[in-house]
Amino acid sequence: MFKCLILATLIASLIFLIIDVIWLSFATKSFYRPLIGSLLTEKPVMWAAALFYIIYVFGMAIVVIQPCINSASLFKTVYTGFVFGLVAYGTYNLTNMAVLKGWSPTVTFVDMFWGGSLTAVSATTGLYLAKKIIHY
Hints:
- This protein is mainly α.
- It has helices at residues 2-36, 46-68, 74-99, 105-134.
């Protein structure tokens, strides 16, 4: 089980990072900047971004992947991943909406859906591929 957890987490983290970087490279200019541009830095703070990914992947491993390893259904991983992402991204976005002037409700809801969807896809694909690779 531990080998499956580690492999699934590594695969899921790569998928998550690749898809998120692609999304952010397009969405920053066309979506985020027009809606919350005055709140954005010119360049991201890379150590903070890296720390987010490390903490988020750790959470995804413990809260989503590990409890779903013995499940025969992929739907449990999809559902759990979506809920975890929705809660995590919702915490960030709804807090910003509550305390920052000019935070966009559109950004809030799109980003929450994005976080849920990205986490569901990453965790499910990572676990599915890990099980196939190690014949779990």
